[in-house]
């Protein structure tokens, strides 16, 4: 009986770690460079903004410099400041939306789409109000979306100035693992990626019919899964990049809570149905997405797997079969090596080696985020504080 208990405790984590290892390994190599594409004649950068007067002008100027042929439309959504005025002064078109009952990014995007419908563009790229794009990224995203007829997601990263807290640097690395390495792995395993909320390019023919009006805190994740169920695969271009400033350490926990609580809640509701649909339709794409949803956020998985290893090891010391503990230890070590390889290939400039040694402290720092999922779950949109 004690042997059976050891296997029951270990097996879920063995499966989760094994899939994560496959995803990480598949995502270590960069995608093949895209051939230069002719950008669309008319593309729009659509920016939903709520009380962003402090930074919106800089965002508009930065995006205009990186994508000089794009039209920039700012949706000042339920603002109590002069976001719209400052956006216009910087050279963007700005429209204002005031609806205190229907709040959230999805409603702002739907409002912007309705405004564009009179003279629709060829492609729309959604960009958050604090983001920057590398030169040429918008053009290659829009061209790829038009060619494929499907959304194309850019790499979405957090950036911090030198000298920030090591925990912020580790958080930025965790974002890179999720939004670049695992995104590449998911693309290679299942043929489609997920949407990250910013740096998302859509052909107008698709954007015009999307169910955007939503107050869901992770409307981008839900939208990508909805498209997958329709048979539409989200593309991913790791050579196109959008960055946003990382929150300060004091604000990071709130930022991460919104993302990770939304992910966990979506996974709870949709992972099983996706896997069931994958079996019925024999869809590798849906199977990969369902398995991806089953894997908890990285810090939570590592914390839970370490605790499980301690329990199974205790059983082994009490006379149970030692193989579950040994397999868990091996898989945890392999995942750690894959993460180290990802850091070496992608993030040495982002995360100094001396800060990497603080990773165990980061895992503990994230613990309140996961405990709050059961006690104070964050379900709505929130504006992250910036320094």
Number of strands: 8
Structural class of the secondary elements? alpha/beta
* SSE run: HEHEHEHEEHEHEHHEHHHHHH
The helicity comes to 55-70%
**Percent of residues in beta strands:** 5-15%
Tally of contiguous helical segments: 14
Overall pLDDT score:
90
- Tell me the domain tally: 1
Radius of gyration computed on alpha carbons? 21 Å
Shape: globular
End-to-end Cα distance: 56 Å
Strand order of the largest sheet: 3-2-1-4-7-6-8-5
SSE layout:
Blueprint: H1 2-27, E1 43-49, H2 56-66, E2 71-77, H3 83-89, E3 93-97, H4 105-116, E4 123-126, E5 132-133, H5 137-148, E6 152-159, H6 166-190, E7 200-203, H7 204-207, H8 219-229, E8 235-245, H9 249-281, H10 284-294, H11 298-317, H12 323-347, H13 353-356, H14 359-375
Parallel strand pairs: 1-2, 1-4, 2-3, 6-8
Antiparallel strand pairs: 4-7, 5-8, 6-7
Helix pairs in contact: 1-6, 1-11, 1-12, 6-12, 9-10, 9-14, 11-12, 11-14
Describe this structure as you would to a colleague:
With 387 residues, this protein is of the alpha/beta class. The chain has helices at 2-27, 56-66, 83-89, 105-116, 137-148, 166-190, 204-207, 219-229, 249-281, 284-294, 298-317, 323-347, 353-356, 359-375, and strands spanning 43-49, 71-77, 93-97, 123-126, 132-133, 152-159, 200-203, 235-245. It has an eight-stranded mixed β-sheet with strand order 3-2-1-4-7-6-8-5, sandwiched between helices. It is globular. The model has no long low-confidence stretch (mean pLDDT 90).
Short structural summary:
By secondary structure, the protein is α/β, with parallel strands linked by helices.
């Amino acid at each position: 009986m004690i042997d059976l208990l050891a296997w029951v405790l270990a097996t879920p984590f063995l499966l989760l770690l094994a899939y994560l290892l496959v995803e990480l390994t598949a995502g270590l190599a960069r995608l093949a460079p895209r051939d230069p594409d002719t950008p669309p004649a008319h593309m729009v950068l659509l920016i939903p903004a709520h009380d962003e007067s402090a930074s919106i002008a800089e965002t508009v100027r930065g995006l205009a410099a990186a994508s000089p042929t794009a039209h920039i439309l700012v949706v000042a959504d339920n603002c109590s400041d002069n976001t719209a005025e400052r956006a216009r002064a910087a050279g963007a078109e700005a429209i204002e939306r005031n609806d205190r009952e229907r709040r959230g990014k999805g409603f702002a995007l739907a409002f912007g789409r309705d405004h564009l419908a009179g003279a629709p563009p060829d492609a729309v790229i959604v960009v958050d109000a604090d983001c920057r794009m590398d030169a040429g990224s918008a053009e290659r995203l829009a061209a790829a979306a038009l060619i494929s007829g499907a959304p194309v997601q850019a790499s979405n990263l957090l950036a911090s100035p030198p000298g920030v807290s090591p925990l912020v640097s580790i958080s930025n690395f965790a974002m890179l693992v999720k939004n670049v390495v695992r995104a590449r792995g998911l693309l290679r395993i299942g043929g489609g990626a997920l949407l990250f909320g910013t740096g998302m390019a859509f052909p107008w023919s698709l954007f015009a019919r999307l169910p955007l009006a939503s107050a869901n805190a992770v409307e981008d994740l839900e939208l990508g899964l909805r498209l997958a169920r329709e048979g539409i695969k989200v593309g991913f271009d790791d050579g196109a990049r959008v960055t946003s400033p990382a929150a300060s350490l004091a604000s990071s926990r709130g930022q991460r809570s919104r993302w990770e609580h939304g992910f966990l809640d979506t996974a709870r509701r949709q992972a099983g149905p996706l896997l069931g649909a994958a079996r019925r339709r024999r869809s590798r794409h849906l199977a990969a997405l369902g398995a991806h949803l089953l894997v908890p956020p990285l810090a939570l998985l590592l914390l839970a797997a370490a605790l499980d290893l301690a329990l199974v090891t205790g059983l082994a010391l009490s006379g149970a079969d030692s193989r579950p503990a040994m397999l868990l230890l091996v898989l945890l070590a392999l995942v750690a090596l894959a993460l180290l390889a990802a850091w070496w290939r992608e993030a040495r400039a982002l995360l100094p080696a001396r800060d990497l040694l603080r990773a165990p402290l980061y895992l503990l720092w994230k613990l309140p985020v996961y405990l709050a999922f059961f006690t104070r779950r964050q379900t709505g949109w929130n504006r992250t504080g910036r320094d």
